Fold:
Amino acid sequence: MTKKDLVELVAKKANLTNKASREAVDALLLGIRDSLKRGDKVVITGFGTFSIRNREARSGRNPKTGERITIAARKAPGFTPGKTLKRVVR
Structure:
């Protein structure tokens, strides 16, 4: 499913225009993004939790040259599905 498909689905289910639906989907995604940027986690009951995960620095290898390199520590977004979502997908 693409963002366009999601917008069309929301428009159909919520009886909205495509423009209003696109704005609603964009607002939701921006809200999640901004919360994660601040370091907060986003919990959507029955769906799952979006959070920031800290990745430790690690060693790797340059695939072109085979040279060992150090991959810096960084933050990455993560998602943990909720019980309801897990049950539906099974």
Observations:
- The mean pLDDT is 95.
- Residues 39 and 52 are 7 Å apart (CA to CA).
- The first strand starts at residue 42 and ends at 44.
